[in-house]
Each structure stands twice: as C-alpha cells, then as structure tokens.
Design goal:
The complex is a heterodimer.
Chain A (H helix, E strand, L loop, with lengths): L4 E12 L2 E13 L4 E5 L6 H8 L6 E9 L2 E2 L5 H7 L4 E4 L13 H13 L3 H14 L5 H4 L9 H13 L5 E5 L7 H18 L2 E6 L2 H7 L2 E6 L2 E7 H6 L4 H9 L35 H4 L3 H9 L5 E2 L10 E2 L13
Parallel strand pairs in A: 3-8, 3-9, 6-7, 7-8
Antiparallel strand pairs in A: 1-2, 1-4, 4-5, 9-10, 10-12, 11-12
Chain B lengths: L4 E10 L13 E11 L4 E5 L6 H8 L7 E6 L2 E2 L5 H8 L2 E4 L13 H11 L4 H14 L16 H13 L5 E5 L7 H18 L2 E6 L2 H7 L2 E6 L2 E7 H6 L4 H9 L5 H6 L30 H5 L5 E2 L6 E2 L7
Parallel strand pairs in B: 3-8, 3-9, 6-7, 7-8
Antiparallel strand pairs in B: 1-2, 1-4, 4-5, 9-10, 10-12, 11-12
Classes of the chains: A alpha/beta, B alpha/beta.
C-alpha cells in the first residue's frame, strides 16, 4: 500500500534579479495516516516552500520531483484537478490566523465555503457544518459565534477557526505551517493539544512545520531537519533528539537554552550565519559553520567544502535504523550529549 | 544594597479605544502598579504573554513613555517626572535594545552614524564618536571595516549586534532589552545571548531583560518577574521561581513550554489553561487570573491578592493560595 503522502526529490527554484534561488533542492519524505512529520529549519531553510509546493501553491516557481497522495501524482497536475485535492484531501493552516481569514465575511461563511464547494452543499448545510466544526475545535457557543467576524475573535480563537476551516472537508492530510508561532505559550499548548486530539480521532496525517524544536519534540513522530534547502537529517523523533547524527542538528540542540538544564554554562552557539541560496557553495552547505569540519584533517576538510554529501543511512556502529544524515562526518552515538 | 533602579507603584494608562458611538472607552491600565528593584550588574527578567504590560514597563523605565503614576528612581534620583530636557543627563545611563534589529536601525544611515548618534547627542566630537563606534563594533564581534556599510548589508544577528553596540555607546549602566533575541534564528540566538552575557561581565551592565521565551530568560537572568495583565504576579530569585513556582500562572506558563526532549515531553504533567489572556481594557474582578485559574475560589473573584513572600526564600507571589 502506498503511503498517504510521498514526496521524492522535490526541487523548487525561483528566478530573481540576483540569480536563481534554489529554495528547495531535493527533499523527500513520507507521511503515513495518523503520523506527524516535523519539518524543522531556520528561516530560509525551505520548509515553508516545501509545504507550498506540496499543495501546488508555488506561483512563479519551477518545481520538479514527485508529490504523491495515496499513490496519485500531484506534481504537474492541472489547476482544475488540483482544486479537487486542495482543501478537500489536503488542508493547510498558516502561522498568522488573521491574514488567513477574510475580514469582511463571518467565520461561518468562510468555514462553509470550502465545504459547499467540495461537497456541492446548500447554504443551510454549509452553515450546519460550520457550527459543528466550531464546536469540534472548542469554541464556546458555536451556534452564536458562527455569525461573528474574525476581528471578534482572539488570536488563539482565530487559529481554532482556521483549524475548523481546514478540517471542514475531512482531509486526510493537514499541513500546519508554524501554526502556533504567533500565539502565546499557554494558547500554543491548547492548539497543539487540539491538533493531536483531532489527529487521533480521525487518523489524520500531519506535517508540522516549525522552527521550535520543543514543538517538534512534543508532536512529531518523525523529523526532517532542513538546512539551506536540503535535508540535513531525517530520523524518528527519539533518535534525533537523543543521538543526532548531523553536526547541524547537534549544534541546534546545543545552542538552545533549556528549562530543564540545571547548569548555567554558556550556550554553545553555532558560529556564523545561514548561507545564501543564490550562490550555493559546491560542498556541504553547513561546512563553513561546522565544528567537525573545522576539527578534521586537511583532506577531510577539503572534501566537506568541495563535495556535497548525499543523504545516506548514518551507519555508525550501534546506530539505530531509519536514520539518514547528509554528512561526510556524521556523529556516532558515543559522541552524543550524555 | 541600594538598587541602581527602583520602580514603585508604576501605572500607565492609555486612553480607551473609540467605539462605534465615537465615545472613548474607559482607559486601559496597561501597567497597573508595578514595583521592583534592579541592582548594578544584575539581570532582571520580565516575562509574560502578549499584552501583559512587560514592554510598556520597559518603555516607561527608559522614559520613552511618561508614567501615569508611580516613581522610577535611578541611582537615588527620581526620573519618573522629568521632562525631555531634565532627562538628558540621565539618558546616557539608560539605553534600550529592541526586538526587530532591522526596523530599529535607520536604513539610510551608515552603521558608523547609527552607533555614534547617541554620542553626538551627548556632545562628543565627530572624530571621537567614530573612534568609539569602531571600538564598539569590535566589542560586539563585528569588523570595524564595515562601519560605512548600511543596515541591509547585515544579517539579522549582525544587525542585532549593531543595535547592542549603539545601546552601549554612552557607557550606560542599565540596558533595557525588549525581546532582543526573539526575532533571530535559533542558531544565531545563542550567539547574541552569549554576547550580552559577556558584555555584562566586562562592563558591569544591569539588564532589564524582557522576553516571552522562558527558557532564554532562565538562561540570562538572576531574578525574574512574571507579569499578568499589567501586574507582577510573582517575582524572585530565578532558582526559586523556576524551581518551585508559587503562583498558579507561573506554574501553568512553565508547564506549557515545550521541552526539546521527546521522552521528557511525554512524561511531563502539563497544566493546560483554559481560554485566552483577558483584555486589559476589561480586566476580571478580584485576582485577574481567576477565570483561568485551576485553584480559584470565591475569595479570588472578589479580593485582589497583593504580592507577599511565598515559601522559604525571598520570592513574592500575588496569590491567595500560593503553592508552598
């Protein structure tokens, strides 16, 4: 049986006055029903572009590769056919709930709109569906609130409305792009719980895009760490956090201040800045910032800078299966943080 | 110890928003009776969710805003009521670092100009100001050769270093940093946190560090104050506050922060608060936290709790039923 979502060798590039930007340069992953893939990366790493490309929402970009939903190829599908998939089988929730909602329409009309289009439902059935959905996402007095406008909701409530809108057509896959980044931490906890509950009830596949490793640790089953448009590491969540194979993942974890850290030693920051995507270096994009490259022999150092590492099983002795890293010098579990 | 900065019963109200009738609503008490001390060379973290008044408090302290009531004492001198001319001699001791590094730097000025501006205002000569700007670039880990570049030529982390360099130009004793790292990428955040810690050690700076990220605050602060709806609900040594939070809001806030550790996340007991933070334009009666509080009782609805010592140490909490 084919997985719910299978993305292979996805490449997205934009032509800009300053040259071609390879925003996503060969990403692949699968998402099964009922599972959550965490897509992590810093700004400019290509995580949002990946999600837009999966939805076919990449205006003006050159996209190659394969995006299969239940075995059906979406990449290259004409708009008309994509429209039967978007919103219906795959839905999306964005970071800023206010800009995702139209200020002139009631939330009920907006939730019902999708549903009525995809199911050719009447106005009355659409409204009924909107009330059901508002109740499901935990909005009090849904029958009354359905006629309210977006500005009458708080930030957290708006994000619930967005989720109601995304789930009104019972999609199989939810792509959530930084859904809690604009929210306060106590409200973030509510929204993450809500997504987890709906996922359990419906067997929803989820792609959670975030820069927050704490959010990933909480919700993801598998994790894909992106750097400069490529996958740096792909692993089940426990392995990724306990024994990261890629020095970038290690660096990210080390540079995070943690609530449960007892010691107050200085943070181990990653030196330098993320690279430019217009003029990618020939070798590993992370090499200029990498502590392992810096500490390697001259020959190895030259290799990291010249030769792009392929995503391969991090086959160190004792390493668990199912883990891929794009690194010439992957970390072995002994080198992991105790 | 006399405090470098001493804030007492600080209140800031803003005029209410005009409704459809054109009549102004009741004034909003954005900061509603905040008091704290900050010693020389110390860092006090000010945490809370959006709208809790933490940024307004910071702006009042550096006198970008005029307090409605209360006093702000810097080194024994009350600066709360001073006008622009009266403030001028004190400005050099009080500087600010802002959240968004790019929007807080003038895009049409060179870095040299941006960093030396506070010095020129204080009466330094152009040559001295430029020399000092070069020193400051070096101090914050940038190359002095880049003095004549413009802000857009720098990355976010570098731009924040420029903002920090500007804040240090007048050799201040207190820097108010309002979300200084929250616009930065994770890998760059740590660089800026480490830089701020080093500068504090080398220059003996005091920081009022305003942030919503509790992990960052735990890292950089000596003491921490938790704000909710314009008031401090808990304040004390960070080990006491983080180790055994006394206020139910602090507990909920800490338990809501996701840990970057899947096993710990699964094992964790989480207090999920209901609802959203209320609007400061229409605060609940009694303890303003009571509608969301898992421990709320009748008394909490009617009587506003005051800050008092909770637990064995010096930490204070504003709660009728604090955790022991």
């Amino acid at each position: 049986m084919s997985p719910l979502l299978e993305v292979r060798d996805l490449k997205v590039s934009f032509d800009t006055p300053r040259g071609t930007v390879r925003a996503v340069d060969g990403i692949g992953f699968t998402v099964e029903a009922g599972r959550t893939l965490g897509l992590v990366g810093e700004s400019g790493s290509g995580k949002s572009v990946t999600s837009l490309a999966v939805m076919g929402l990449h205006r003006g970009a050159a996209v190659t590769g394969s995006v299969r939903l239940d075995g059906r190829e979406l990449c290259g599908l004409p708009e008309r056919q994509l429209n039967t998939v978007r919103g219906r089988r795959v839905a999306m929730v964005f970071q800023d709930p206010l800009s995702g909602l139209h200020p002139f329409y009631t939330v009920g009309e907006q939730i019902a709109e999708h549903y009525r289009v995809h199911f050719k439902a009447s106005r009355r059935a659409g409204r009924r569906r909107a009330v059901e959905m508002l109740a499901e996402v935990g909005i009090p007095e849904p029958a009354r609130r359905v006629d309210d406008y977006p500005h009458q909701f708080s930030g957290g409530m708006r994000q619930r409305v967005m989720i109601a809108m995304a789930l009104a057509c019972e999609p199989d896959l939810l792509i959530a792009d930084e859904p809690t980044t604009a929210l306060d931490v106590t409200v973030q906890a509510q929204i993450l719980d809500l997504i987890a509950r709906i996922q359990q009830d419906r067997g929803l596949g989820v792609v959670m895009i975030t820069h927050d490793l704490g959010v990933v640790a909480r919700v993801a089953h598998e994790v894909l760490v992106m750097y400069a448009g490529r996958a740096a590491e792909q692993a089940p969540v426990d392995q990724l956090f306990s024994h990261p194979a890629h020095p970038y993942t290690r660096g990210l974890l080390d540079s995070l201040p943690r609530l449960d850290d007892p010691d107050d030693a200085p943070l181990r920051a990653i030196p330098g800045n993320p690279p430019s995507l217009t003029a990618p270096a020939p070798g590993c994009a992370y090499a200029p910032r990498c502590a392992r490259t810096a500490g390697a022999s001259a020959a190895q150092h030259a290799r990291c800078l010249a030769e792009r590492p392929a995503l391969a099983p991090a086959a160190a002795p004792g390493a668990a299966a199912g883990r891929l890293a794009a690194c010439h010098l992957p970390l072995v579990p002994e080198g992991a943080r105790p | 110890m006399t405090a470098l900065l001493s804030v007492r019963d600080l209140v800031k109200t803003f005029p209410g928003r005009r409704g459809r009738t054109g009549r102004a609503g009741p004034p909003v008490r954005a900061v509603d009776g905040v008091s704290f001390d900050l010693g020389a060379g110390e860092t006090l973290g000010l945490v809370g969710e959006s709208g809790c008044g933490k940024s307004t408090t910071g702006r009042l302290v550096v006198r970008l805003l005029d307090p409605t009531e209360g006093s702000i004492t810097l080194d024994g001198q009350d600066i709360g009521g001073l006008g622009p001319a009266g403030m001028r001699p004190y400005r050099k001791h009080l500087q600010m670092v802002f959240q968004d590094p790019h929007s807080s730097l003038n895009p049409r000025q060179t870095v040299a100009r941006i960093i030396s501006e506070p010095l020129l205002v204080q009466g330094a000569s152009a040559a001295d100001a430029r020399r000092r700007a070069a020193e400051l670039m070096d101090l914050v880990g940038l190359v002095p050769e880049q003095l004549d570049r413009y802000p857009h030529e720098f990355s976010g982390g570098q731009a924040q270093r420029i903002g920090i360099a500007r804040s240090l130009a007048t050799s201040p004793r207190l820097v108010v940093a309002d979300e200084p790292v929250s616009a930065l990428d994770v890998s760059v955040q740590a660089q800026v946190v480490n830089l701020m810690e080093r500068l504090q050690r080398e220059l003996g700076l005091a920081y009022l560090f305003i942030a919503h990220d509790l992990s960052v605050v735990k890292r950089v602060c000596d003491r921490v104050a938790v704000m909710y709806l314009g008031r401090i609900v808990e304040i004390g040594d960070k080990h006491e506050v983080y180790g055994s939070p006394a206020h139910p809001y602090t507990r909920a806030l800490l338990s809501a922060v996701p840990l970057p550790d899947p096993a710990a996340e699964r094992a964790r007991e989480r207090i999920v608060l209901l609802g959203d933070p209320p609007s400061p334009a229409d605060p609940p009666s009694g303890c303003t936290f009571h509608p969301r509080c898992p421990k709320a009782q009748e008394r909490c609805r009617t009587e506003q709790p005051l800050l008092r010592i909770a637990g064995p140490g010096t930490r204070q909490a504003a709660c009728h039923f604090p955790e022991a």
